[in-house]
């Protein structure tokens, strides 16, 4: 028995894992963002706590909705289940490092012809163990652990995507609320003009064509208002589904789109980019693929299994557990594939090819991350300029409409000129609102592309 123990220890000491050690391949990273200030060279650190980034917007309704994502979203529950599966796979792989032990008990009564029947009792324990001499189990554990870490990053990606989608849809809904206010005011103004034109028509001052034109513009404003309400309802339904609710059970009271958008810090610390979960997931998939190469290479070496059993057998149960009735055995077996017509070589080459693909995926993910940040920064900067110009254009159009309205009431300008001015004002205000809405969406997109939000520190910095 002692010899067997020594042999097992010798096998454990002599175990040598085959396969390449994992080293994260380098990627080309810029020293600074083109659209913003300098930043330090980054590495993915998705495990950093992101915190409630949406509180940056100071909207209590949005804060309340975001707080329900973790509780109600069925999409997030799916990702959480996938992560738990990955953790269970790690435990399953780790269990293969240890022996298996089974307990057997039996009682058999038998007889033959005129002989008296007898009962035979057996009780024993059987153990078997396949030492991980070539690292197959260890590489499997490494692969499953890396996959589980990648699954955790995927869960973080899903959570961040849901949070960003919720914020984007919420601000889009508030855009429709603001648009409804504009259209409602336009409809009211056109109804007043229609009433004035109807009076003038009755007095013989205005032509019937003018009255019909005024009525047409009033109805057009009502139709546009109805379209905005439809869009608003659909966005409200989308928010309900994101939160895991039935649209019939979810309602948001109308409110205008906030006018102040948080300003992006001029210099973005690299820790924000380091926390992008998709980069972390791609890096962990590389580690898992590297471990698969070791698993494939371990197939070239023999599988060794050690077994042992110890128990008792007898016909008298009272004296069964005695040395005289003891039974034991020790044994070992080895198996090795001699001829497979290139199957193991093909499996190894397949694992290497998959690893190379994961390296390319990782590098492309990093490049895409840089692009998304640059796109969002550029959008933030350019949209501010566009919004300023468009809001000025809308203000000018409002003044033009007021002047034309006064001229129409004085009989100086025809109705067609006033209606044209109203249409131009509506177009300008809609375009200004659309640009503002794009700024809100770009703000959320920037936070998402950075892997989370930032908070102001006591020294005025950000993280």
CATH homolog superfamily of the domain at 30-100 and 157-283 and 357-449: Outer membrane efflux proteins (OEP)
How many beta-strand runs? 4
Across the major sheet, the strand order is 1-2-3-4
> What is the highest CATH level, the class of the domain at 30-100 and 157-283 and 357-449?
Mainly Alpha
Main β sheet profile: 4 strands, antiparallel
Gross geometry: elongated
Strand and helix order: HHHHEEHHHHEEHH
Tally of DSSP helical segments = 10
* Proper CATH architecture of the domain at 30-100 and 157-283 and 357-449: Up-down Bundle
Distance between the termini: 62 Å
What is the CATH topology descriptor of the domain at 30-100 and 157-283 and 357-449? Outer membrane efflux proteins (OEP)
Low-confidence stretches: 9-14, 38-43, 456-463
Question: How would you portray this structure in words?
Answer:
By secondary structure, this protein is α+β, with helices and mostly antiparallel strands. The protein has a domain at 30-100 and 157-283 and 357-449: Up-down Bundle (Outer membrane efflux proteins (OEP)), CATH 1.20.1600. Strand 1 (100-110) and strand 2 (118-129) form a beta hairpin. The longest helix is centred in the middle third of the chain and has 67 residues, at 136-202. The two termini are 62 Å apart. The chain is built from ten helices and four strands. A four-stranded antiparallel sheet has the order 1-2-3-4, with no helix packed on it.
């Amino acid at each position: 028995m002692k010899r067997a123990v020594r042999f097992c220890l010798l096998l454990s000491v002599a175990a040598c894992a085959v396969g390449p050690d994992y080293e994260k391949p380098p990627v080309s990273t810029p020293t600074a963002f083109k659209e913003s200030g300098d930043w330090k060279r980054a590495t993915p650190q998705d495990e950093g706590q992101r915190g409630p980034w949406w509180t940056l917007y100071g909207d209590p309704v949005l804060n309340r909705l975001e707080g329900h994502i973790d509780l109600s979203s069925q999409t997030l529950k799916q990702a959480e289940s996938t992560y738990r599966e990955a953790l269970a796979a790690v435990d399953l792989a780790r269990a293969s490092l240890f022996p298996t032990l089974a307990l057997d008990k039996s009682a058999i009564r038998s007889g033959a012809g005129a002989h008296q029947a007898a009962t035979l009792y057996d009780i024993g324990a059987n153990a078997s163990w396949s030492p991980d001499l070539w690292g197959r189990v260890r590489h499997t554990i490494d692969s499953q652990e890396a996959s589980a870490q990648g699954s955790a990053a995927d869960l973080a990606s899903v959570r961040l995507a849901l949070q960003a989608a919720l914020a984007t849809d919420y601000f889009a809904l508030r855009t429709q609320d603001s648009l409804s206010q504009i259209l409602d005011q336009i409809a009211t103004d056109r109804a007043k003009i229609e009433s004035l034109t109807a009076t003038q028509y009755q007095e013989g001052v205005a032509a019937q064509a003018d009255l019909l034109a005024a009525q047409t513009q009033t109805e057009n404003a009502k139709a546009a208002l109805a379209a905005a309400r439809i869009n608003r309802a659909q966005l409200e339904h989308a928010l309900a589904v994101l939160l895991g609710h039935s649209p019939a059970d979810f309602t948001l009271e109308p409110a205008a789109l906030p006018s102040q958008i948080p300003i992006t810090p001029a210099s973005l610390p690299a820790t924000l980019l380091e926390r992008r979960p998709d980069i972390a997931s791609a890096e962990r998939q590389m580690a898992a693929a590297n471990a698969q190469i070791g698993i494939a290479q371990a197939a070239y070496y023999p599988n060794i299994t050690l077994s042992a059993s110890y128990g008792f057998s007898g016909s008298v149960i009272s004296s069964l557990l005695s040395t005289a009735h003891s039974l034991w055995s020790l044994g070992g077996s080895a198996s090795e594939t001699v001829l497979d017509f290139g199957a193991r070589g093909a499996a190894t080459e397949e694992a290497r090819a998959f690893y190379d693909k994961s390296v390319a995926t990782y590098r492309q993910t990093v490049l895409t991350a840089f692009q998304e940040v640059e796109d969002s920064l550029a959008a933030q900067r350019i949209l501010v300029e566009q919004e300023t110009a468009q809001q000025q254009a809308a203000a000018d159009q409002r003044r033009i409409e007021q002047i034309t309205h006064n001229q129409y009431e004085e009989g100086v300008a025809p109705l067609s000129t006033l209606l044209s001015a109203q249409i131009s004002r509506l177009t300008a205000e809609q375009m200004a609102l659309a640009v503002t809405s794009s700024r809100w969406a770009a703000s959320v997109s920037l936070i998402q592309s950075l892997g989370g939000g930032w908070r102001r520190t006591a020294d005025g910095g950000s993280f």
